[in-house]
Amino acid sequence: MHAWRVFRPGPPGTRKFELRNEPVPDVGDRGLLLRVLACGVCRTDLHVVAGDLPVHRAGVVPGHEVVGEVAALGPHVTGFAVGDRVGAAWLRGTCGECAYCRRGAENLCPDSRYTGWDADGGYARFTTVPAAYAHRLPGGYSVTELAPLLCAGIIGYRALRRSDLPRGGRLGVYGFGASAHLAAQVALAEGATVHVLTRSAQARQLALDLGAASAGDAAGPPPEPLDAAILFAPVGDLVPPALAALDRGGTLAIAGIHLTDIPPLNYQDHLFQERTLRSVTANTRHDAREFLDFAGRHHLRIVTTAYSLDQADQALADLAADRVTGAAVLVP
Question: Which reaction is this enzyme known to catalyze (predicted)?
Answer without folding.
Answer: a primary alcohol + NAD(+) = an aldehyde + NADH + H(+); a secondary alcohol + NAD(+) = a ketone + NADH + H(+)
